[in-house]
Amino acid sequence: MQNRRQFLQTTLAAPAVLSAQTSGQPLRVAVVGTGNRGTYLLRQALQVPGIQIIAVCDLLQDRAENAAGLVAKAGGKADVYTDFRRMLDTRKDIDAVIAATPDHTHRNVYTAILEVGKHLYGEKPLALDVADSRMIVSAAKSAKGLFQVGFQLRHDPNRNAAEAFIHSGGIGKVLYCQGIRHGRDLPRNIPWYFDKVKSGDIMVDQGIHILDLFTWAIGAHPTRAMGSGGTSLFVNDPPGRTVMDNYSVIFEYPGGVRVNMSHHYFDPPGFTGNQERVFGADGAVDLVAATFHPRESKETKQLDVPNAGQDATVRALTSFRDSVRDGRPVMSDAESAMVSTIVPLMGTKAIYEKRIVTWEEMTA
Ligand SMILES: NC(=O)c1ccc[n+]([C@@H]2O[C@H](COP(=O)([O-])OP(=O)(O)OC[C@H]3O[C@@H](n4cnc5c(N)ncnc54)[C@H](O)[C@@H]3O)[C@@H](O)[C@H]2O)c1
Question: Can you give the pLDDT at residue 272?
């Protein structure tokens, strides 16, 4: 078992970047998968100085054309493609790709992009099983380009400041994390979200963000997972649904640290919402609000938050640009993203198989 320092070193270290961008040149970027998230990433990327969108690609021509329209509106010009391999073949001047295709396509899309030497910002989860995750990690290790995985909440100013406070010892020894993701059901206009074969189910596709923040806060991977979940309200709704609408899961980390996560889709508007809280021996931190609550007083301390109020995705893309330009490590590289992907895979397996699942068996 790695100790905390080794874990942070190995999971936060980035692969060597062999081709740092020449300073002053814009980073020429293509967006692959211009659906819901890809369009949002594109809009945010258009706000980042030094990123120039030169191509957009989606299997659905109208989505790619819509994306090109957004680029044109911002004063640029993007070529439209429906086949990303052809795009990469044709536009040799593409430096980097932002990829936001469905979860079950990540292995094929990411390895193909990494193999042709492009820098890659690719959405979470890394993949939908451990073997595919390893394949991507291996492609990233031998790639000429840098790979950042889309855990943008690590770049959210409040959460980033709260994590820095935890890592500096601000709450003392980390003891326990409480995550709540209570909301409305998944959007009906994205059918693959409801198919567990394509999305990995709701913990892998959605709960992963909070679990990633907790794993980062603790600085180790969990050793065991146990949980219960199912579909209680949205049974066969939409028709053919195979993903849960609620679960509770507990992860045990080294040193007796526990993560408790509750996730469901029948939250009344304005009720619980989300919570991301990390408890330590000296007090607790609310990651969302970046507040510290000492254990022995009623005082609430607002943490110093550099870049307060800035959008997490804009910051994640800005950081990606800087990492490419300066050869700096990314915060969510392939290895750290693999750990953060195995966590919800492990929790989901524990729920499906109604038993305790260990890290060892996941990674054997
Ligand atoms: N980081 C976040 O907060 C966040 C939020 C939402 C979604 N996501 C992730 O973004 C990814 C996309 O999710 P979405 O909600 O945008 O789904 P979506 O279905 O709206 O968009 C995916 C798009 O990819 C296209 N596509 C599929 N295969 C392709 C291929 N081989 N080449 C080109 N285009 C292809 C589809 O036609 C579709 O338009 C998923 O991995 C999801 O987990 C991340």
Answer: 85
